[in-house]
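Example record

The entry below shows one chain as it appears in the dataset: sequence first, then structure tokens.
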Amino acid sequence: MRKRTKHITIVRPGKSLKIFAAVLFFSIASLSIQAQTTATRAYQVKAVFLYNFSQFVDWPPTAFKGSNDPFIIGILGDDPFGTYIDETVAGETVKGHPMIVQRYQDVKDITNCQILFINTDNDIAQILKVLANRSILTVSDAANFAKQGGMIRLFTENNKLRLAVNPSAARAAGLTISSKLLRLADIVN
């Protein structure tokens, strides 16, 4: 009778660990890319909203220093839009004013701006206090932004981008928000 021998395959721990690490790395990288793509898409939509606000809000003549001044969309804090917002407004005008994008790290750097997206962890109430009585449409996606005195808060509900608008804050800054825009928003006072 023949004796059966068992063959045992020995996998070196280093090799299986490398394979496991590679699979884990690509899985995490894939999730990270998916999350980044979702965030990028969300901010692309928000960039378009910022542009469209320029069509549904009226600024007083004092909002511009001169007739040749640009219409400025400002971003305070980290820029979540990347170049997409620049591409969105390239070549566009608002009542004869060419649109441009400017980025600010400190609220004190803002001299002339018509729409300001606030994306900072700094004290929002303090920022809004500094901007009070200036004809700047303040926009953010921070929680309770409109309740704190901001003018437009962008938020997601049921996978749809929604607006919360504080019309009294806009009126105090001399801005008139179109009823067409207000019909789409939750009103906050």
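Notes for this example: DSSP finds five helices and ten strands in the chain. The longest strand covers residues 97-104.
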